[in-house]
Amino acid sequence: MNFLAHAWLARGGSDEFLYGNLIADGVKGSDLSGWPTEVACGIRHHRRVDAFVDSHPTVASARCRAPAECRRYAGIALDLVWDHFVARELNLGRQQSLLVLRSYEVLSHRPAPARLESMIPALVAQDWLHRYADFSFTCDAISGIGRRLSGPNRLAASVPWLKADYAGLEADFHRLWPAVLHALEVPRTG
To answer: Are residues 128 and 142 in contact, defined by beta-carbon separation less than 8 angstroms?
Structure first.
């Protein structure tokens, strides 16, 4: 799961908890003592979501369908594809989401970890979370991440597979997402 799915799962918590979920990929290590308590709880929640998704049989099956030369990075591509399907579930291609706007507000008023420092402003300014509803945009984002990795762009190489297996991936999402919601969606507080 990527930013949008993590935001959806964390939306019931405080803004600090949401922020922790959104920036967790930029935070290294297990020592979170330098973070405020709610942010650290959000980072831990994000990591539980990632572990649950990465170990889910549906994801393992999808990864096995990736071309052999792309499998090492298939998890990254799939995380963005899951966000595409979340965006479609939320009808973000046709309407603005209060959750997305809240996420942008949270990200805009707090410093991003160094690893995300240049990406977060672009994510907000270019409205990535709404735009994930467009599969072409999602594929471009996957290729863009691949350009930032060393070596050949294996993520861009995975795009033809993602397009060809779209129906299968959509079916995978509809098996995966209810399980993720059931296990890890944070109920609203207050």
So the answer is: no
